[in-house]
């Protein structure tokens, strides 16, 4: 459903949010280990998220990645749009360019419902909402 890049971005943002709530900044090595991702790949993703303003970073001995108050309240939809664009919210389920209400693809109306539910879930899911489940060990970011 999401690209691998987007999956890693979402996992990293949640991991960083957890560390931020613990008043900690976190480095690339710890993030990669914490979400089970390749270090070089996650570094590129985090650089892009920082450039787009979804994530903050600080250099130096006490540096690392963190989320400010605004970033903590971002939705998962914000992350998905920043990484994968908004095609998942508006695109055709079969990838057709001309799919519409007037000229629907075979799955248009069923997929429209799924797409709307997914959009609602991602819009309402805030980054900071997932940290408690991680702290309570009722949810996990690693396999």
How many extended strands?
2
Rg measurement, Å: 17 Å
What integer is the average pLDDT?
Answer: 93
Looking at CATH, the homologous superfamily is Winged helix-like DNA-binding domain superfamily/Winged helix DNA-binding domain
Q: CATH class, please?
A: Mainly Alpha
CATH fold field value: Arc Repressor Mutant, subunit A
Helix content: 40-55%
Count of discrete alpha- or pi-helical segments spanning 4 or more residues: 8
Integer tally of domains: 1
The helix/strand class is mainly alpha
What is the element layout, followed by pairings?
Elements lengths: L3 H18 L6 H8 L3 H13 L4 E3 L5 E3 L2 H4 L3 H9 L2 H4 L17 H17 L6 H5 L8
Antiparallel strand pairs: 1-2
GO molecular function, one term: DNA-binding transcription factor activity
GO cellular component, one term: cytosol
Organism: Parafilimonas terrae
Keywords:
elongated; 143 residues; two-stranded antiparallel ribbon; TR_Rrf2-type_CS; 8 helices; Arc Repressor Mutant, subunit A; mainly alpha; 55% helix
Task: Tell me about this structure.
- The chain has 143 residues and is mainly alpha-helical.
- The chain has a single domain (4-135), classed as Winged helix-like DNA-binding domain superfamily/Winged helix DNA-binding domain (Arc Repressor Mutant, subunit A), CATH 1.10.10.
- It has helices at residues 4-21, 28-35, 39-51, 69-72, 76-84, 87-90, 108-124, 131-135; strands at residues 56-58, 64-66.
- Strand 1 and strand 2 form a beta hairpin.
- Helix 1 (4-21) packs across helix 2.
- Pfam families: Rrf2.
- GO terms for molecular function: DNA-binding transcription factor activity.
- This is Transcriptional regulator, BadM/Rrf2 family.
């Amino acid at each position: 459903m999401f690209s691998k890049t987007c999956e890693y971005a979402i996992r990293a943002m949640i991991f960083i949010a957890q560390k931020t709530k613990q008043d900690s900044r976190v480095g690339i090595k710890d993030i990669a280990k914490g979400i089970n991702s390749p270090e070089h790949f996650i570094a590129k993703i985090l650089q892009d998220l920082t450039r787009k303003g979804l994530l903050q970073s600080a250099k130096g001995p006490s540096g690392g990645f963190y989320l400010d108050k605004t970033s903590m309240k971002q939705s998962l939809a914000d992350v998905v749009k920043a990484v994968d664009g908004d095609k998942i919210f508006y695109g055709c389920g079969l990838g057709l360019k001309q799919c519409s209400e007037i000229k629907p693809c075979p799955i248009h109306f069923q997929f429209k419902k799924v797409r709307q539910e997914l959009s609602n879930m991602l819009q309402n899911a805030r980054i900071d909402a997932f940290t408690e489940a991680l702290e309570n060990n009722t949810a996990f970011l690693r396999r």
